[in-house]
Automatic annotation (TrEMBL):
Entries under Pfam families matching the protein: Usp
Name of the protein: Universal stress protein
Species whose genome carries this gene: Nocardioides simplex (Arthrobacter simplex)
Boundaries of every UspA domain copy: 3-137
Gene Ontology MF: a single term: ATP binding
Gene3D superfamilies from the UniProt entry: HUPs (3.40.50.620)
Family stated for the protein in its record: Belongs to the universal stress protein A family.
Domain of life: Bacteria
UniProt KW keywords: ATP-binding, Nucleotide-binding
InterPro entries: Rossmann-like_a/b/a_fold, Universal_stress_UspA, UspA
Signal peptide: none
């Protein structure tokens, strides 16, 4: 079975840095790469503008974020795949890694403050429950 790296993104610069590291690791090891964007719940709305009405949704925006990052990283790692999955970020990363039989999960170490620090961070949850190795990128 081929090695596979899973990395989570959410549209922010720190997640992009983690994704860049995941791509470098995949290129160096010959592993595949899967980019996933989690969203807590889907909401959709119709927006009317001069050229008509457009539907926007969180799930579609999340899929677009993952696809955009995957497209950018495909220059480094051909064949990058992507998905958007409903759920809490840590749960989604763990589930996708398990579903895809990943050999590595890459996450950034976003600085947590306030209530997020009390409730726990995505990197901590992933590191404690991962079905594979975890690489925590210093994105600070």
């Amino acid at each position: 079975m081929a090695e596979l790296i899973v990395v989570g993104v959410d549209g922010n610069e720190r997640a992009e840095r983690a994704a860049d590291t995941a791509a470098r690791l995949a290129a160096a090891t010959g592993a595949g790469l899967h980019v996933v964007c989690a969203y807590v719940r889907d909401q959709a709305a119709e927006i009317s503008v001069a050229d008509g009405t457009h539907e926007v949704s969180i799930s579609r925006e999340s899929a677009d974020i993952a696809a955009r990052v995957a497209g950018r990283l495909a220059k480094v790692v051909p064949g990058v795949t992507s998905s958007a999955v409903q759920g809490r970020p840590a749960d989604v990363l763990l589930a996708e890694a398990d579903r895809l039989h990943a050999s590595l999960i890459v996450v950034g170490n976003r600085r947590m403050q306030g209530i997020a620090r009390v409730l726990g961070s995505v990197p901590a949850a992933v590191a404690h429950h991962a079905p594979c190795d975890v690489y925590i990128v210093n994105t600070g």
